[in-house]
Amino acid sequence: MTNGGYEEAKAQRNVFERLMDKIPGFRGFQDRELRRDVDKLQREHISGEIGRVKTVLRDKARAYTDAGQIALLGPFDRLDRKLDGLSQSVRFADYGASGLFDAVKIGEPELQRLYEFDLSLLDDLAALRTEAAGISSPGASPPADAAAALDRVEQRVRAVEEKWRGREQVISNVVRGVPGA
Question: 125: domain range?
């Protein structure tokens, strides 16, 4: 597109935006749709991070299988299933009825609290991935050390699951404008 074409398209967009400003309720509708899209993108990103943790754990499990040390495969499998469930819960969470997407204007401070929550969840997942990567390789330490590391990872996964369940409360607080959400 030539620069003139870009400017023309931009001018048409500005005319369209001015027209949309004249239609009662349209801006609120547009804002709701944008919040839905952003929330979906955030949840997909969080789910992707959970997938990265699963990949680390699967690689570790494969190393134990290749080394013929199958005693720890049960805990690895249990973690894989937990992470899969968490990923599905995150990806397919339905907050459309929560009020976050209502026509009511959600202010920047309220949205900031939700974004901070999601960032802290991503930090927790990064720490989880680091801890999972730190599980010793087969033969590098006694199996008891690897089993203890797997237990710690499972505890951290439970904490992330619990935190995720708390996101609905954060959203409710954001919608109501409750401080400290």
Answer: 35-176
